[in-house]
Every structure is written in C-alpha cells, then in structure tokens.
Design goal:
Elements (H helix, E strand, L loop, with lengths): L16 H11 L21 E2 L14 H4 L7 E8 L3 E2 L3 E4 L10 H5 L2 E3 L2 E5 L5 E4 L1 H14 L7 H19 L8 E10 L11 E10 L27 E5 L25 H9 L4 E6 L4 E5 L2 E8 L5 E5 L11 H13 L5 E4 L4 H9 L3 E8 L3 E10 L2 E4 L9 H14 L9 E4 L7
Helix pairs in contact: 1-4, 4-5, 7-9
Protein name: Branched-chain-amino-acid aminotransferase
InterPro entries: Aminotrans_IV (IPR001544), Aminotrans_IV_CS (IPR018300), Aminotransferase-like (IPR036038), B_amino_transII (IPR005786), BCAT-like_C (IPR043132), BCAT-like_N (IPR043131), BCAT_family (IPR033939)
EC number: 2.6.1.42
Amino acid sequence: MAPIAIAPFQTTSELTHSGIKHTITKTAPSIITNGNSTIINELDASKLVFTRNLSPRAVPEPDSPEVWTQSVCTDHMLTCQWTSTSGWGVPHLQPYGPLQLMPTASVLHYATECFEGLKLYRGHDLKLRLFRPNCNTRRMLNSATRIALPAFDPDELQNLIEALVAVEGEKWLPKSRPGTFLYLRPTMIATAAALGVQKPKEALLYIIACCFPSFDTPSGTAGPGGETVQQSSKARPGLKLLASKEDTVRAWPGGFGYAKVGANYGPSLIAQGEAKARGFDQVLWLLGKNCEVTEAGASNFFVVWRTSGGKLQLVTAPLDDKVILDGVTRRSVLQLARERLGGDLEIVERKYTMSDVEVAAAEGRLLEAFAAGTAFFIAPVHSIHFRGEDLEIPMSEGSTGKYTAILKTYLMNIMYGREKDHQWSVVVDEKQLDA
Ligand SMILES: *Cc1c(COP(=O)(O)O)cnc(C)c1O
C-alpha cells in the first residue's frame, strides 16, 4: 500500500518520519542508537509470541443485550512490557484475561494512562479492514509521550494491532455477517510499583478487541469508548446535546485535551451522568466566556450553516489551542468534504460560539449538526439545550441532514470496502486457527 499523506496533526512536523524521530528523541532518548549500538530495545512486532486460548468463548449475536454491556472481549489480547532499563520486551499474543498490578502501580494513582479507539470492519466484499490505523498509532505516540509514557515506533504498534485482528477476525467477525465491526482498544499504563510522583519506569502496552453496538443509528450514547448502554426513546431521531455550564470545563488551552489520556474522561463523567439523567445523550463542551463550541462528548462536532452572506459552510473547531482531540473521523470528514464537496461547501476550521449558532438558527441559516468519532461514527444532532432553551436543528432528510448523510455514506463505503482499494483502508490478512 502506498504511504498515506497525513494532514497536519498538532504541527505538521509531528507526524512525519522525522517528526516521530524528534518526538522519540525528545521523550525517550534512550531508545535512539548511541553510536552504533542501541542501548535498549525498541517495540518490535517481529518478536511476537503467540499462546492460543484453549477455552475460547462464544461470540454474542450482533446488537444483543450482551453486546450492549460493552464488556465482551475476544479470546486473545496483545501485551508488551516496557522498562526504562531494557526498553520494550517481547510482545505476547495471549488469552484474554485479568492483568496483575500492584496497588502502588503509578496508573492507579497518577492517571498515567492513554488509549486509542479504532474499529475492525468486515467488509461487504468479506475482506477484513482497518481504517487509517496509522493515524491512531501516531496519535497514541503523542498521547503517551504527553504523559511521560514511553515512545515507540507507531508502525510497530500497527503491526501488533494487525497481528491481533488477523487471529480474531475469522471467528469474531464471521464472513456470514458482512457490515459488522469490532472495537479495538490499544492502551498503555504505567505499572511501576512505587508511590513516588515521577516519570514512569515501567509500562504495559496492551490491545484488546471488544464487541460493540452501533451508536449511530439508534439513539444510544457513548463515552470515549461508548460506555452507556441504555437507549432512550424519543420522538425525533438524533442526539440531544446539553451544553456544558461555565463552571465545567473539559479542556483548556495549554492543557491536554488534544491527547487521548484517561485523565480527560473521569472528570467529565459527572457532567455526562447529569446530562443523561435529564434525558440528553451527550454534553456539548463549551469553552470560555464566549461559549466557544468545542466537542460533543468524546466526538468532534460539526455544523453546516449558511453565512449571512449566503455561503454554505461545513464548520468545526480548530486544533490550534490543543483543546480538541484530532479525531480520525474529523480529519477524514474534512478531507472528503474538501475533495468531493468543495464545489458546494466551504470547509472551515475556525473558532465559533454558541451565539453564532443561535443567531444562525434564529435566522434560519443553521442547516445541520453532527457528532463525528469512531464510537458514535457520524451521528446527526437533533437539538442543543443551552441556557434553559432547546435550540432545534433541522433535519432535511427526516432523520439526518443532507451533508451529514453524504459524508457518512462516503466513510462507510471506504470502511466496508464498497469503495474499492481506497488508500485509507488497510486490508488485514486473516490467519486460520486450526479447529
Ligand atoms: C476519541 C475522541 C474523539 C474522536 O476521535 P476519532 O479518532 O474520530 O475516534 C473526539 N473527541 C474526543 C474527546 C475523543 O476522545
């Protein structure tokens, strides 16, 4: 597969080959060679050791209550340990099961944890695919190094993800169920058993694969990995968002909102729980006195509106202040819109406020809004509750907006192989396990 041109991440340099080298040199200098000899080991998928699970479990029915618990993982998981003295160890593909941690482990006290979320798709052509996994692995490198977890070569992480799914694909995404997916959760935690507040000296990288429901069609709701299980019943389809209050801030300039670190999510659960209890699906996170619109739950947020000058625009908040997660879905929506809808739509990454949205709505210029992320996929937004009032968002196509639907279809066609050989889809070679 040809290398994929990667759009700017935090700064353009950070996702290029030299950018990654720079991140590694800056954050984990010991894994760079000293003279000719590497001091400690780099992450190396070719050393993988496989131990087969001899008590495999049954695959639940798609969309069954069991799947909605979001607790059913596949038979195997990938683990790899790191220490500051010897670097990355041998990766193990092994039976899924509990981890052993000392009560003093750094992650349990200091939130030294980061994660990724991506999906494995069973295509309509029966092939198994990942969607832009290199974006997830690079983002994970940025998240890990933001919280002093060890650096690694993102391509090796992708190789490990592929090794896990190659083994799980045939059973967990059977060819008899095209159009289904598994949710993959690469995770890294600091494991050193000591209470000192210091840079982690030991870490564990692991990758699990979990059965997930679809959040984009029913009126379900999801956190970073989509953990809420109830489906609320409501008259109109689409997400109902509750705008965050001024005293509740998800992320701030100079903070770490741009990193997928666990520390961003725990503190947001009170607001999410309150939204849920009041009948909303997600929090729309606002920032500052002007109520800048940032993200919806753990998804990026887009609006389609007409400017007062009459221009049709697709708008989302910019990445500049490191407040917003650089979503792979966000990035893909922007790229596809620019390539394919640029004639109709102006694509804009800019700061905008709730008052901009309110004025557009009042003047009949607000046309669509949607949340975009791996767990939610592309989910049309039905209304925003802000300062005691419901701001209704039109749905030109009944249950969705016109461009929301078009963009979702583009993405689905790439993910499930209806669009042939797209450069963003990575076909995985499946391994046959003997019966
Ligand atoms: C994961 C996440 C997103 C969506 O990113 P994708 O790569 O599209 O899944 C958006 N915002 C936050 C805060 C997230 O955690």
